[in-house]
Amino acid sequence: MAKIVCVLYDDPVDGYPTSYARDDIPKIVKYPDGQTAPTPQAIDFKPGELLGSVSGALGLRDFLEKSGHTLVVTSDKDGANSKLDQELHDAEIIISQPFWPAYMTAERIAKAPKLKMIITAGIGSDHTDLQAAMDRGITVTEVTYSNSNSVAEHVVMMILALVRNYIPSYNWVIKGGWNIADCVSRSYDLEGMHVGTVAAGRIGLRVLRLLKPFGVQLHYMDRHPLPEAVETELNLTHHSSLESLAKVCDVVTLNCPLHPETEHMVNADSLKNFKRGAYLINTARGKLCDTNAVVAALESGQLAGYAGDVWFPQPAPADHPWRTMPHHGMTPHISGTSLSAQARYAAGTREILECYFEGRPIRDEYLIVQDGRLAGVGAHSYSAGNTTAGSEDAAKFKH
Ligand code: NAD
């Protein structure tokens, strides 16, 4: 019987919900490319419930405990002697969500001699040292596509919020004001602007499709160019570098995974290529950007706005400069953990566990690392190596 350690974010400050704003959520059976949504044999939760926090336990408690496994659920993941560290010595499977990642560094992997699989309940496995996992033969999986469309919706929301100056205008209402000139002196229409995505995978392509009706000019770069038919349908301009894309775009959105090739791709040098007054939206990973370079670009006016929900490390320390920089529209990491998304990635996590325990193959599209190498989506979208350096600073959130 296995020990599974599941690291989840804390319950709401007022306690685990006893009722919800809505009675149901739409059932998504297939994603836009035809991939089926998760197909576990059963689920022990009601879609629409809060599953990603400690009391929700990703809906896995009954399934695992009735099968005789041990499930440890904790939010205590950072700093010396965290619960996560205490449980590593005999853990076979570690599960966490990118919103509250269990940083599985080489040091932690070395402390877990029985570890066989690390599951990302969600998408994006950069919080695991993939090189160390490959070296140890540990399988790394994620629930591909489970929240890609959720994030794309968030990207569109954030682009509109920045360009139209929504958040400062909202704040004038809260303050009791009617300061129209203050609100509109930074407010524009998106129509006619050039919008570019760095990566046109599941999220990036969805963003392009959602934005098309706004009458914008669309651009993308990706190491795997899109089919010509899609380029024609969306009237896309393909770029082979960030420099080329940034030079012509009014809005740039980052939608690639974090891996050694993409770490800090937005930095003081690459920001010089952006149009003055560009908007940058990053719901992919905080470490794609150099933290201080983003702050400096907002302060100088090189960027007119920055929004996103991803930070490094996570949780972001109380003094993280992105909390207080000008013209930002940051949220905590929430875009991929709507209640709708949770139902899908909780079911996908269960599907992966069922396959693992029954010795059945895990879907190729859920694989990041297997048999000592990048596999499945990992081979398509990642490069080998490690991007967890500095993650120990997540402990500063507690202080
Ligand atoms: P995907 O695998 O479908 O797409 C990733 C794309 O990135 C691929 O098309 C790949 O070719 C491209 N890419 C990789 N390296 C590149 C590089 N160096 N230059 C240009 N393109 C490159 O994944 P997805 O579902 O679109 O998700 C993308 C990323 O978004 C995830 O890896 C994750 O980091 C992030 N994400 C964030 C949230 C959230 O809640 N904020 C949720 C889901 C995913």
What does this 3D model show about the protein?
With 399 residues, the chain is an alpha/beta fold. The chain folds into 2 domains: 3-146 and 337-396, NAD(P)-binding Rossmann-like Domain (Rossmann fold, 3-Layer(aba) Sandwich), CATH 3.40.50.720; 148-323, 3-Layer(aba) Sandwich (Rossmann fold). The protein is 29% helix and 15% strand. It contains 14 helices and 14 strands. It has helices spanning 61-66, 83-87, 106-110, 130-136, 148-163, 166-174, 180-184, 202-211, 228-233, 242-248, 268-271, 291-300, 339-358, 376-381, and strands at residues 3-7, 70-74, 93-96, 117-120, 139-142, 194-198, 217-221, 236-238, 251-254, 278-282, 303-308, 328-330, 367-370, 373-374. The strands form 2 sheets. Strands 2-1-3-4-5-13-14 form a 7-stranded mixed β-sheet. Helix 5 (148-163) packs across helix 8 (202-211). The mean pLDDT is 98.
Question: What is the helix fraction of residues, given as a range?
Answer: 25-40%
From the alpha-carbon coordinates, what is the Rg to the nearest angstrom? 21 Å
Main β-sheet, in a few words?
7 strands, mixed
Structural class: alpha/beta
List keywords for this structure.
alpha/beta, seven-stranded parallel β-sheet, Rossmann fold, 399 residues
